[in-house]
Write a structure and sequence with these properties.
By secondary structure, the protein is mainly β. The protein has four helices and 20 strands. The strands form two sheets. A 16-stranded antiparallel barrel has the order 3-4-5-6-7-8-9-10-11-12-13-14-15-18-19-20. A two-stranded antiparallel ribbon has the order 16-17.
Length: 540
């Protein structure tokens, strides 16, 4: 097509291509633009443009056919919707395009092909527009390299609590910041994830600092400081725990005093389409950024089986598993057995003892989810040995060993989302109708009352320190020593409500009944405590 006709069609196509917002991109950060950067063109939009181009080409071909049928002497291009120069002849094709110039030359097949090439070039240029390098991915802010390989996301969360008590000798009612964590996470390519997260609630402390190398689904490697893979409850992210606190059983888990984290390395992976997941690693076993005190690392293994994961069975989201851990303590480092303090701080039901020797832990868990319902349960027991501990005990019993400290506990919990959201395993529910925007990733529901969940948990915990005596003057002090046995247990009932204002803001309301069944370490007699806990959680 020569002259004004070709120019008109080409101008029309250019406007069609470049006037589509989905193709307008910029390499500059979003904050440097007068208007927000548009999204990259989707496959559907590209296909729609191709269909429009094909229709335009077909129309031009019809026009060319009509032109070829006119008398050569006329010297005019017959138009489809306009009167020819003598204003008496009507167009023969009602689908033809109007012409900007009645003296334009007829279009040829070469003109059509040239136009198609120009259109393809414009499409390619639009499709090659640079990717978005900064913005919001629906869940986190992000910075991304131009090739898309390196992604960095600032992340953080805040848990602010208010706790009130009722019972003899209880702690004062108080506001507190339970967590205030900030850091970055992301990936480099598809095979390497990383995270650096700091705790700032009291003093600045490294919480998570690791890389996760994922060459295959069945074998991945993680190294740095992060959660020791023991128990389902520990595996639940801090922001996804549905109660204000984890269960009272969590004091039995490895590195409980260090937020369940320690420096180390592990191998993990998924088998059979995720129906079986495993973890196995070695750690210092002494808590946050702390060196080991023995030549024997903490060895931890965990396995999770979801037998119906890849089926439509009603038990598709049923899973069971277990964990085991072995470590070693050093009495000369003043290492102690597990803490007997309740997670809400109401009282300490069992004392801590100096330990020396092996520490063995075992755990079993189960979970079932269906729709808005979630059911979870877990049992844990441990043995803290006291080998050759006599000289470290008050009064001393020579080099004799004492029976080990035994800890046992279990919990069971039920949660139910009243507003119809699906109960996730280790995530925040996708709130369908948030009180305040934006909507959850993947959700398009309008404003509403947010998501509401009810919850209940029962947990119990037992501590036992068998007694011992020494009457042999060859191995004992001049005065014989007797160490009485200690065996206590406690339990806790927890009920409450969660109100998810949106995907990022959560209000928790818990009510605990703590039952002190034996006199506490503080000397408080048997009684029940009522504890009301409120928490505001914000994350980004």
């Amino acid at each position: 097509m020569r002259g004004p006709t070709k120019s008109f069609v080409l101008l029309f196509v250019c406007l069609l291509v470049w006037g589509t917002p989905a193709f307008a991109q910029s390499d500059k950060p979003a904050g440097d633009q007068a208007a927000p950067a548009a999204k990259p063109a989707s496959e559907e939009e590209v296909q729609q443009l191709r269909r429009e181009v094909a229709e335009l080409k077909a129309t031009i071909q019809k026009l060319m056919l009509v032109n070829s049928q006119q008398p050569a002497a006329s010297g005019h291009l017959v138009e489809a919707s306009a009167v020819v120069s003598n204003n008496t002849t009507q167009p023969t094709d009602p689908n033809a395009l109007p012409s900007a110039d009645p003296n334009a030359s007829p279009a040829t097949a070469a003109d059509i092909d040239a136009l198609q090439k120009e259109i393809d070039l414009l499409q390619k240029k639009a499709g090659d527009a640079g990717p978005v390098t900064a913005g919001w991915n629906g869940e986190h802010f992000f910075l991304k390299s131009s090739d898309g390989n390196f992604v960095l996301m600032p992340v953080g969360y805040l848990d602010a609590n208010y706790v009130s008590y009722n019972g003899d000798g209880h702690p004062p009612d108080t506001f507190s910041i339970q967590r205030a964590r900030f850091g970055v996470q992301g990936n480099y390519g598809k095979q390497l994830d990383y995270a650096f997260l700091f705790e700032t609630a009291s003093s600045v402390t490294i919480r998570d600092a690791y890389i996760d190398f994922k060459p295959w689904d069945f074998l991945k490697f993680q190294a740095g400081q992060y959660k020791v893979p023991f128990s389902m409850e520990v595996g639940t992210a801090d922001t996804n725990v549905e109660f204000v606190d984890r269960s009272i059983v969590s004091v039995l888990y490895p590195d409980a005093g260090g937020s369940f984290r320690a420096p180390g390395v592990d191998a993990h992976g998924d088998l059979f389409g995720g129906a079986l997941t495993y973890w196995g690693g070695v750690f210092n076993g002494k808590g946050l950024i702390t060196n080991n005190t023995t030549n024997e690392p903490e060895v931890t293994g965990r396995i999770r089986i979801q037998p119906f994961k890849n089926s439509d069975n009603p038990f598709k989201n049923f899973a069971v598993g277990g964990s085991a851990a072995h470590s070693r303590s050093r009495g000369l480092s003043n290492e102690l057995s597990f803490s007997g303090a309740l997670n809400d701080g109401a009282y300490t039901f069992f004392p801590q003892y100096i330990i020396n020797g092996g520490i063995e832990r075992y755990n079993g868990f189960a979970i079932y989810r269906r729709g808005p319902l979630g059911i979870r349960g877990e049992y844990t027991q441990g043995l803290w040995k006291r080998e050759g501990i006599g000289t470290l005990q008050l009064g001393g019993i020579g080099n004799q060993s004492l029976p080990g400290i035994i800890g046992k506990g279990a919990y069971g919990q039920v949660t139910y989302l009243l507003t119809g959201e699906e109960e996730p395993e280790n995530a925040i529910p996708r709130v369908k109708h948030p009180v305040i925007g934006p909507s959850s990733p993947g959700e398009t529901g309008g404003p509403g009352w947010g998501a509401w969940a009810v919850k209940f948990r029962y947990s119990w915990l037992q501590g036992k320190a068998p007694g011992a005596s020494c009457t042999d003057n060859n191995t004992c002090p001049i005065t014989p020593a007797i160490f009485p046995a200690q065996s206590d247990h406690t339990d806790q009932f927890t009920g409450g409500v969660n109100w998810y204002l949106n995907y990022w803001i959560l209000l928790k309301f818990d009510f605990n009944v703590d039952r002190l069944l034996y006199p506490s370490v503080q000397g408080i007699t048997k009684q029940n405590y009522a504890v009301f806990l409120q928490q505001v959680q914000f994350r980004f």
